[in-house]
Every structure is written in C-alpha cells, then in structure tokens.
Specification:
By secondary structure, this protein is α+β, with helices and mostly antiparallel strands. It has a 4-stranded antiparallel sheet with strand order 2-3-1-4. Helix 3 crosses helix 4. The model has no long low-confidence stretch (mean pLDDT about 95). The chain binds guanosine-5'-triphosphate and magnesium ion. The site of guanosine-5'-triphosphate has 10 residues, from strand 4.
C-alpha cells in the first residue's frame, strides 16, 4: 500500500496543532505507520530540503526546520501521497483553500506548519531519510474493511 512522509514543522508543534493535524489524516481513513518527535540538525534539514538549495530562502528554511521539535510521520493508504497534499493545501497559506490544513491553520509561507512528500520518489527518499525500516509498523486496522470495502 502507498505510503507518504508527513512532518509537522516546529511552528505546528509549538502552536499545539499536532492532534488537529493527525486527526485530519486519521478521520480521512489513512493509517499511521510510523511516528516520532525529533529536533533535526541543520545538516539533516539541508538533506531533507536538498532540492531547494538554490532558492534564496533555503538557509532560513533549514534554520527554521532545525529550530525545534518536528513530528515526523509515515501515513499509509490508497492515494495517500496526492491526497495528503490536498489535505495540506497550497504551499502559501494565503493561497491555500479554506478546509485545508494550511488554509485553516497558517498565514504565511515561511510558517506553513506541515510538510508532505510531493510524489512517489520523494516519499520513498524522505521515509528512508527520516526512518529506519524497523520503525515502520505493518498492521491491519479493523475499520479497513469499512474504509475500503471488500470488492
Ligand atoms: P513542503 O511540504 O514543506 O515541502 O512544502 P511544499 O512542497 O508545499 O513547497 P516547496 O517544497 O516548494 O517548499 C518547501 C518549503 O519552503 C515550503 O513549505 C515553505 O515553508 C518554504 N517556502 C517555499 N517557498 C517559499 C518562499 O517563497 N519564501 C519562504 N520564506 N519560504 C518558502
Ligand atoms: Mg515540497
């Protein structure tokens, strides 16, 4: 089953939005298969955002990601990579639709509270960067037969 990497950035953790964000993924029907709280080093943040290293905000972004605890998660479900990005909303919260996480809970692009992998390759790379294989838990949820049906 498809998996994606989702992280609540230091602003989301400090603003006490962990349960609100987890709840949106959980209520949708996605399954949490890994979770931990970590303060990434600057070097680690630079690895995570390596594709943005030519952008003018790269240094500030990496300083910010390493400035406090991040809640790192892996969520599993059909279409979770693309739909996770929909739940999150547009990068700039000024452009995110109401009803999305950033649309409802954030105001500026530099403090947009959450990260989500943008495709299957980045999901794989980011899960491998943030988690060891044994930290991913494979299990069945009772509700799965209701979420997905049997046919
Ligand atoms: P992530 O899920 O965090 O990767 O966001 P994204 O995929 O929606 O956007 P992108 O990967 O292009 O940018 C990564 C992060 O860089 C964003 O989430 C923002 O926090 C930050 N960022 C992007 N564009 C800008 C910008 O123009 N200015 C500033 N200050 N930060 C930006
Ligand atoms: Mg991105």
């Amino acid at each position: 089953m498809e998996r994606t990497f989702i992280a609540i950035k230091p602003d989301g953790v400090q603003r006490a939005l962990i349960s609100e964000i987890i709840s949106r993924f959980e209520r949708k029907g996605f399954k949490l298969v890994a979770i931990k709280i970590v303060i990434p080093s600057k070097d680690f943040a630079e690895k995570h955002y390596h594709d943005l290293k030519e952008r003018p905000f790269f240094n500030g972004l990496c300083d910010f990601l390493s400035s406090g605890p991040v809640l790192a998660m892996v969520w599993e479900g059909e279409g979770v990579i693309k739909y996770g990005r929909k739940l999150i909303g547009a990068t700039d919260p000024q452009k995110s639709e109401p009803g999305t996480i950033r649309g409802d809970l954030a105001v500026v692009v530099g403090r947009n509270i959450i990260h989500g992998s943008d495709g299957p390759e980045t999901a794989k790379d980011e899960i491998n960067l943030w988690f060891k294989p044994e930290e991913l838990v494979t299990y069945a949820l009772n509700a799965e037969k209701w979420t997905y049906g049997v046919n």
